[in-house]
Structure formats: C-alpha cells, structure tokens
Automatic annotation (TrEMBL), chain A:
Keywords: ATP-binding, Nucleotide-binding. The keyword Transmembrane helix does not apply. PANTHER family: ABC TRANSPORTER I FAMILY MEMBER 6, CHLOROPLASTIC (PTHR43204). NCBIfam families: sufC. Belongs to the ABC transporter superfamily. Ycf16 family. PROSITE patterns: ABC_TRANSPORTER_2. Residues 2-246 form the ABC transporter domain. The keyword ATP-binding applies. InterPro entries: AAA+_ATPase, ABC_transporter-like_ATP-bd, FeS-cluster_ATPase_SufC, P-loop_NTPase. It comes from Winogradskyella aquimaris. This is Fe-S cluster assembly ATPase SufC.
TrEMBL record, chain B:
InterPro entries: Fe-S_cluster_assembly_SufBD, SUF_FeS_clus_asmbl_SufBD_core, SUF_FeS_clus_asmbl_SufBD_sf, SUF_FeS_clus_asmbl_SufD, SufBD_N. Belongs to the iron-sulfur cluster assembly SufBD family. Residues 5-167 form the SUF system FeS cluster assembly SufBD N-terminal domain. Residues 174-404 form the SUF system FeS cluster assembly SufBD core domain. It comes from Winogradskyella aquimaris. PANTHER family: PROTEIN ABCI7, CHLOROPLASTIC (PTHR43575:SF1). This is Fe-S cluster assembly protein SufD. Coiled coil: none annotated.
Amino acid sequence: MLKIKNLHASVEDKAILRGINLEVKPGEVHAIMGPNGSGKSTLASVIAGKEDYEVEEGDIIFEGENINELAPEERAHKGVFLSFQYPVEIPGVSVTNFMKTAINETRKAKGLEDMPANEMLKMIREKSELLEIDRKFLSRSLNEGFSGGEKKRNEIFQMAMLEPKLAILDETDSGLDIDALRIVANGVNKLKSKDNAVIVITHYQRLLDYIVPDYVHVLHNGRIVKSGSADLAHELEAKGYDWIKEEVNA
Amino acid sequence: MELKEKLVSSFMAFEDTVDVDSPVHDIRTEAIKHFENEGFPTKRQEAWKYTSLNSILKYDYSVFPKHEEALDFKDVKKYFIHDIDAYKIVFIDGKYSSHLSQTTHDGIDVCLMSAALTKPKYRLVIENYFNKIAAKDGLSSLNTAFSAEGAYIHIPKNKLVEKPIQILHFSTGNEAALMLQPRNLVVVDENSHVQIIERHQSLTDNPVLTNSVTEIFANKRAIVDYYKIQNDRETASLIDNTFINQKQESIAKVHTFSFGGKITRNNLNFYQNGERIDSTMKGITIIGNKQHVDHNTLVHHIEPNCESHQDYKGIFGDSATGVFNGKVLVEKEAQKTDAFQANNNILLSDKASINTKPQLEIFADDVKCSHGCTIGQLDESAMFYLRSRGIPEKEARGLLMFAFSNNVLDSVKIPEIKNRITKIIAGKLGVNIGFDL
C-alpha cells in the first residue's frame, strides 16, 4: 500500500528526514516511535503533503503511484489521512459542515454525486456514536475551544467519516486521559480491516497497549534505526531510547 | 464648471421646486452657504486622508434628472429582499416610484420625505428632528441644501413594526452621469421597534454619485435594526452619512455589507444621550478590482453605563483598498462605559491595502474600552488542515474566508437577509457554500 524509499526531506534547508525506508501492507499496523526531534511528525506531514517540507530525494509510493508531487487534497482523495498532533481551530466552520464539505469534495474528485443528506446524517450519527461524541458537539466550530481529548476524538471521528486506506495517527495519545485514550483506540480498532492500514506515531508505548502494532520502528535522527515486533515497544518503555542511540553510534 | 460651482449655482433652480417660505428652507439656505465655504473634502483633512473623491468629482453630473423612468418589478426584483413581506419606499433616479413602493400611514408613518417636509401634519416632527444631528460638514450640508426627497419613517410609541422597511434607490442611466442627494429621517419613539434595509443600485454603467444623509432617532427603549446592503456596480459611488441619536436604554444596530461600488464611504455616527444605551455597528467588506471602501465610525459616549460594539471584517483582493477609522469618544461623565472595537482584515493580493486606525479619546476614568485591528493573510496551517481532509485549495481558501466574515452575521435577526448576504459572500469568494448555516 505504502512504500517509502530513501526519503530525504528538509525544512528551511535543515535536513530532517535522512533516508527513510518503510513498507506498509494492507491490514497492517505500524508504530513509529522515537525520541523528540527524531523526525516522527515530519514524516507524517510529508506523507500527507505539507508544502513547508521539501522532499530532496526518494519516493513516496502509494498504491503503486508516486505521490511526491501531489497536493494534500489529492493525497486525501486517494485515501491518505493524517490525524493531527495539534488539530487547527477553525472558528465559523461547524464540525458537521466541515465533514460534509470534505466528504463531498472527495466524492467530487472521484466523479461521484454529493452524498444524499439523509445518508450523510445517518453516517454522522453512527460514527459519532462510535467515538462517543455528543450531537451538540457537532454543531460547534471546528476544534474551537475543544479540550485536548475532544480534539483527538474529533480527529478519529473525521477518520471514521472519510474511511481512508492509510491512516497516520500523529501523537494521537498526547493530551488524552485514560478514558479518552480507550475511546480513541476502540474507534481505531473498529475501523481497522484487512484492506486498510494504520501508522501510529507515538513517543510512548501506552497507546500501543490498545492498538497493537504488527511492526514497531524506531526513528532516530531522521532514519529508521531499528524495527521489530510489538515487543520492541515494551522494551523501549522499560529501557528508554538511550540504548538505541548507543547502538546506533557504536 | 467645477462640480462645486455647478451645485451652488443649481441651488437657485432648485428653489423653484420647493416651498421657500417653509422653515426648512431657511435650513437649506444656511446649508448651501456651508457647502460653499467647505466644499468637498480633500485628502488634506485627517478624516479623508486615505480616501480621495477626485476621481468621482470630475463627472458632469445631472443634479435634476430630466426624465421620469418606470421600472418593472420583475426586472429589479433581485435587488429587493423579496421573500419577506415588507414596506417598500422606492426611488428611481431620485424620484419616488409609487408603483414599486408600499407605504403606510396605518398607525405608523412609512412614507416620503417630500410629503413630510411640506404637509402640516408632519410639521412638529420635522421641527423637532429634521437636521438636528446631521453634521455641518461640506457633504452633509450639500445634502441638507438639496434635501427634498427620501424616506420618512415615524414609529409612535409602543409599536413593534413586524414588517421590515426596505428603502431602495435605483438609478437607470437615463442621465450620462447622475448625482443623488437622498435625505432620510427615522424617528422611533418609546418602546418601539423597527427594522430597515437600505440599498442603492445602479442599473447601468453610467456614473452615479449618491450623497445620502440619514438621521435616526432612537428614543427611550426603542430598538432600531438597520441594514445597509452595498453591492453596486463599479461605476457607482456612495457617500453615506448616517447619524443616530439614542435616548436611554435604546438599542441601535447598524450592519453594513459592502461588496461593491467604485468608492464607498460610510460615515456612521452614534450619539448616546441617555444611560444604558447599546450601540452596535458591524460590517463585512469584500471587494476586489480597484474598489474602495472606507468605514468612518464615531461613537460619542456622553452619559454613564452605556455600551458600544464595533466589529468590522474586511477581505481585499486585487488592487482594492480599504479604510477603517473608528473613533470612540468617552466624555468625563460617561463612567462605566463599555466600548469594544475590532477590525480584522485579510489581504489577498500584494496590491490590496487597508488603512486601519482606531481612535480612542477617553476622558472618564472608570471605563472598559478595548480595540484590536489585525491585517493578515490566511492561516497556512488551517489551509493544510482543510486540504488534508480532501478540500481543494480554492474551496479551502473560500471556506476560511467565509468563516472569517461569518460571525458578523450572527447578529442579523432577519433570516432572509442572512441568507441573501451569505449567498452574496459565497459568490464573491467564488465558493459553493453547499450547506445550511
């Protein structure tokens, strides 16, 4: 589904990713862990197409197609979804209207008609129940005045609505209390299928207790320096990152 | 001949058409002298530093249109808020159109200034209110000198006027260039409530210059909701001079939607003569090309415990220019004043500009006054957020601009107006707002 080959990316001439290689197949859950500043969020943003980052070298292949040059919305239309670490507050646009616009623009890009209103409402109802989101919440301005937990739940709600092939969860666990974490993880697990894939980017192992990865990768200095099974996450939790850094430097 | 000389010399011809023995005519005669002394404002005056009228004063305007023109309702329907039941006072090239109007004398007076200025039954109201708060500057004086026609609205006490009143001025292009001086008087007595919608619309590309004066009196506990829809052609210019005198516990709200015209200048003045008064002025300006919109507001806080709220949003594209000059004057006696002013702008091009200037003059020591102006581009992180959800760049831009201006509409109480303005905004921003609000 996703193949990243020798990806180098920089922001304002500062190299952040220095040769990432990663392959994600349908049905898989990959966790990307690593210390602060290792390039985790940059990797997420580059896959989603944030234009502040310059891809210097390498390829991002999604479903057999190189998407390096595609606009963020084109990647979204193909099924890439990024759950933001810091969702942006947009006063004046309600959650519902935002979702309707996003879904219908995606359908338009695929040559489909707008989703009928009753179908949209039904979908909104189902997915908001899945994330235990109050109806009142949906008429509020997008992320404006939301608590940290509400923002993250709202991200996963959007993911549920857009049904992406590849979901990248960037530090979705940060700022969540244990109940919110459980709700979010439960939502992600229910959306998982053999046809889609998830990349979980996290600093800590605790989210991985709920969303169990098939593979764990450790990112350090813009490279994946170690890959393993879910056990690697436990090891990192117990031992920290220093031993990895030492291994790399050895 | 310069326009000023032409206007001054036209005054004699104008006198042939009005009753020169009425007290009102003394006011006119005084006003033409004022205008002769003051002339048109220039950029040398502080309040006109960023707005030059030169480009619109060069035309050879007709001051008295020769022809009377009729219009079919179906041809101009779209300029009305036509999906609500409303009183209508309609003028074509400055002349009253009874055909398009729906006036009333049933408990309230919604009729013509020409009648009010001449008929005895209105004499007392005219004596008490006419030209009592209009400024004595050149432009207002010019209007006063030629004041003969416009809307006259008098709501006696304890009346809730259910139907809004629409005032429309059409110019047909029968004259190569036309200058209009509409004069409106609105008197709302104790406990009464009125909603008014005003629009000036040119139907051809012949130049039109409208110099309008509206005096509004909101007496004790009166509520006045005034909506100005400015979406004219790029050959039409408007100088709107509005003066509002408020008595205790009255509420006056003016929404100004400026979407088009060559030069639009809004002089909006509130005078708070009583306690616990609420004055609100809100505006959305969305212009492009070489259009120019200038909002010049004044709130004069004279007595204690009053509020004023100003919220103006502007989006300027192409080579469009904007001005916001908001003056809040708090007198020494006006303790516990709560004055808020915000002016937020987005510039869409390098050639667009906005000059924004808050002016707070506060002589009382126990007040809450705040102001803020911002000028910016669209938030790039918000753009990426929307685009990452599949919303294309153009639509994302439109959605953000829409959201930016949208909250000004929260205080619009007539849904039909809200819908109309929403549609105009969506059209201006080139986005399909495919959802209900």
